[in-house]
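From: lab user (bench 3)
To: helpdesk
Subject: output format question, protein + 2-acetamido-2-deoxy-beta-D-glucopyranose

Hello, I'm new to running complex predictions and I'm not sure whether the block I got back is the full result or only part of it. Here's what I submitted:
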Amino acid sequence: MMFGFVTQFFLRALLPAVAVTVSITAEEVGCFDPVTSPFNKNDWLYCQKISSDDHEVFMYYTPLEDTVLLGFHALKNTEGWTALGINGNGGMKGATFITVREDGGDWIAEDRHAMDYVMPALDDQQDVRLLFAKQENGQTAWGVVIPQNSCDSDGNDYEILDRMTTMLWAVGSSHTFATHTARGQFQANLMQAPKELPSTDELPYFEILMPNVTIKMGEGGTDPTNPYICSYYDLAEIGQSSGFAPEETLHVTRLSAVLSPETKEHVHHMILYACSTDGFSYNGTKHLTVIPECVSMPADCREMKWPWAVGGRDSIFPEKVGLPIGGAMNRFLVLQVHYYNPTLKEGMKDNSGVRVYYTTELLEQEAGVMEFVGGVNSFQQPPLPAGEKSVSISFTTPSECTRNVWDRPLNILGVLHHMHTYGTYMEISVVRDGVNLGNLRPESHYDFRHQSMDEPVPAIRQLWPGDQVTQTCVYDTTNAPGSFVEFGDTTQQEMCYTPIYYYPRQTDADSFGSLIPWLNSSWCLEPATSEEFQSSNSSLCAQTMYENVPLFYRFDKEGELTFDLLTACSGGNEFQDLFYEFPDLCPTCRVTANCTHDDVALHAQNLCATLCNEVNGLSLYPDMNRTKPYQYGNWGCSPTYYHEPYVPDAPVCQARGNANIDFIQLNGIALLDIPNDTLVEANSESTACRKAVIVATCILSVGATLFLSVM
Ligand SMILES: *[C@@H]1O[C@H](CO)[C@@H](O)[C@H](O)[C@H]1NC(C)=O
Ligand SMILES: *[C@@H]1O[C@H](CO)[C@@H](O)[C@H](O)[C@H]1NC(C)=O
Ligand SMILES: *[C@@H]1O[C@H](CO)[C@@H](O)[C@H](O)[C@H]1NC(C)=O
Ligand SMILES: *[C@@H]1O[C@H](CO)[C@@H](O)[C@H](O)[C@H]1NC(C)=O
Ligand SMILES: *[C@@H]1O[C@H](CO)[C@@H](O)[C@H](O)[C@H]1NC(C)=O
Ligand SMILES: *[C@@H]1O[C@H](CO)[C@@H](O)[C@H](O)[C@H]1NC(C)=O
Ligand SMILES: *[C@@H]1O[C@H](CO)[C@@H](O)[C@H](O)[C@H]1NC(C)=O
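Helpdesk reply: Thanks, we reran it on our side. This is the complete output you should expect:
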């Protein structure tokens, strides 16, 4: 099917009359357009339009046995170098680029990589071979062959796998490789035909759109070129116009980004969160209330429902699977939009957001958002030292844990990495039956500005009960001010966090997080010091909690606030907020307002037993069963504490395909059923090609140089 390649190109090259001189109007041109496209269906299996803007770019690709043919075709406005990038996120950081340009009269293809927003450097090992290239009247077309897995770790090359991943294209103004004049990101699976998105005609939907917000950093923000703005949405309100009841649960089947035409290039990423009414005082909150500076989400609105980044396609759930939103517990949603405004353009209003397709007839299965939380606050990770090029933390959810909490294998739909600005790398390795299956989602360099939800690698399409999951986050704190970087919500603090779309949803068993003991261990293990507490054999923990609640729970770092537990449990409305945070803080006598010292002291001792056990992994005085702490805490698990799990080595990279292989070396390795006449017609010296495994390699040796000289 793909072997007419040489003939087609060769003949076309010899017949300039066929060459493209026709002027093109955007709407008419599609993939494999017989007039404009030098790519034909015999040689190139697949085509995907990757940009409709100024350059109108198409990507052509053909997966072969262990290589991939990659083609680029821009219809307009290209005068210099052009590139396709294969990367883990859509940004420059960690991207590997194939750049094609003219160099001293010859066309060359280069394998480059970028670790930051800098000029992509040449890889030491060049894993690309040019098949052909041409540029005429602003149009550019080229084809290359690349291996499916080069194992070139220095150059960050990505293994080409059967998964949807984020890619990019870029064009420059001249043939001297320099900063791009335009670029874009898109998603593709180079091993499969592009998937047509199913029609949405039949589906009911509502839209959650930013209420005409001004793109401008709010008070308290730190980077005016990167405003983060949020808005609240009340499903009770939306239900009135859409026809569902205020507390009805909806099953979302598809989420599509809606971008305002005038401002779309400034919408960098959007995340839809659900708020939990449990603990969320929504009385003051209204539909379409805007939070002008919203790098940190409101505390009760953190359940991620939809992450989207530039170039992201619709999130479509499999048949019979719906993502639940709404219901009594999730009446409010918050949309966070990260705008990018590098030139500080003023007065722009934005109405972007998401179209939510849903059904009220609940589907068989619910999708969930699983979370691995290496750390989002100072209770989960100690601060990172500043001034270090590479600081790594790692957090494991042990095998016993997932075996106890998951009731079946879970299908993984998408994986997002989230750290803040010091984050450079994240990896999630999965160990099953003692074997390390590798990294769930490859991304060679993390980029805060390009957080994309990508599919897992084919080897780990499911997570099974009993899998051990290790999340590793790496930071570069060289430029951090002060001595430490704390874990926390603000952009200047750090996180190590991974939300994962999956199904079927595991109620209450899909969030796992590291835990550092925050109680002073001697509180658990030592007797009380005051006579009152000693006489009842109580612990120092119960006494400390009783005497100073804010100090005990560390919610008043300045130490300005002091009250004891009896006061709190006998007190009035001023403590309402406290009981939202800590609903079990007082015994039931709080309700009837007749708590005694003894009631509260006994309750403190009981609370301490739970806390010492679950927060520190210790028993509570006078019980001295467990006085030595475990090494590892995970709040999503039962039991909570483990000794540090063993992580076997990751599988060694297995190279697949080689762009530089010479056809002569391939001669005789294997016979493919290639029609005898095709190649001969192109070049009679090429009979050896008929015996090659990789047809593309033959083409190189036979047609490419000839073809190029004709160009
Ligand atoms: C947004 O605000 C501008 C200026 O106030 C107004 O002209 C425009 O009509 C508004 N658009 C929408 C969709 O509300
Ligand atoms: C909200 O208001 C209702 C009625 O005024 C009240 O019963 C409820 O306690 C309030 N909820 C919160 C979280 O303040
Ligand atoms: C822990 O508590 C004991 C008893 O109150 C105290 O002496 C010790 O300094 C505390 N340790 C820390 C690290 O705060
Ligand atoms: C306190 O604990 C000790 C040792 O476990 C025990 O002998 C004693 O009876 C206990 N006293 C009270 C008042 O419970
Ligand atoms: C507190 O009040 C409740 C209800 O009136 C009563 O059942 C309970 O015995 C009282 N407790 C004390 C210690 O007086
Ligand atoms: C401590 O040991 C005793 C006796 O073996 C047992 O009854 C008790 O349940 C243990 N406590 C904990 C917290 O394990
Ligand atoms: C190609 O030629 C060889 C020998 O000349 C012959 O055996 C083979 O059947 C031919 N293959 C096809 C597909 O025509």
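A quick orientation on your result: The pocket of 2-acetamido-2-deoxy-beta-D-glucopyranose (ligand 4) is lined by residues 537, 622 (CB under 6 Å). Let us know if anything else is unclear.
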